[in-house]
Amino acid sequence: MTKITEEIQDLFWKVRVTLGAPIRAVELTDDQLCGLLDVCIEDYAERAQNFVVDNNWIALYGKNINNIDLAYAMSVRALDMSKDYSYWFSKQVGLQQEGPWELKKDFFTIEKGKQVYTVPAGRVINRVMWVNPPTTQAALFANYGGIDIGFGGGYAQLGGGAYGPVGGFYTAPAADVAYMATDLQYKNRLLRSDLVYKVTAGPEGTHLIHLLSTPGSKLHFGLTNGIAGALSLVGCEVWYTYYDASKGDVDECMRYNANDVLLSPDQVPLSKIDFTFLNEPTKAIVRQLLIAKAKITLGLIRGKFSGKVSIPEAEMQMDYNMLITQGNDEWKSVMDRLDKRLERLRPVNVMKENAELAQQMLEIQKHTPLGIYVI
Question: Is 319 exposed, middle or buried (0-12, 13-18, 19+ CB in 10 A)?
Fold first, then answer.
């Protein structure tokens, strides 16, 4: 709650005078006005800070929340995509983790028809490398009509085709292999579905990795009997990285290694606005909002029991609808003026005004004499 200072007391006095004090009683305590002031500042901050985020989001996206880069992004417009991507990737693979937890990696081997694989307890999964198998091995002999059957370590050391076997030497030029591998990779994306996964909780602290689609099913393209291993998922390894939290501190590990990269506007950390540090025009806006909110609250207070108050030998009807209506209208009017002001301050609108100003200056210069004197 806002601390009541001399400045705040003066603000409350202005609000009460506007509401009719001391001629009329104002049934609002200082604590109630402090709460309403906090609400008004928060509503103002919602508009003003969203304006800041909206106009700087292209520079804020991918920044570190706790880094000085955030302040830099607020003041300088830059598209430093390479640095942002490198930091984001380092977060994904765990290179920026905090605390005593060691980042490790492990794998499990894909079995035909098996979709769910168990990760031991005490492992906080960081990332699962569930990708299509590499196409380089298949590309080594695809250009020449041969098949890499995997003897002697594979890598096209045996096979048939236009060039035929050459006693263990590589037969396919490197450029052709690279081009063919790229082509096979693109065809894989056309012929088989994307490989996705999800992680769920398992019994006794374990985790279950569900691979989609099921390896070896009809949804997969390629042989599954192990002969054409480069085109099959069966027998491939799925690697995953994890934090070792076997000592039972899983919750603490997840808290220290949370993702601190800005991915949505609600993650931008903006400090709470203090009334004392507002400039005079902004204080006037907050004062107008406070008066409107005080009228609404006062109307709700007086409207209890439909505004009927019993007095000796009579009954009095308090007019509360007028206060609520005035408060709502004034609140909407102040917010509309604030929105229009912020809209005028958007960088794109400021640039348009500067461009129009420059254009008008050129028009003025067209009609300015050149200063040529004839004697």
Answer: exposed
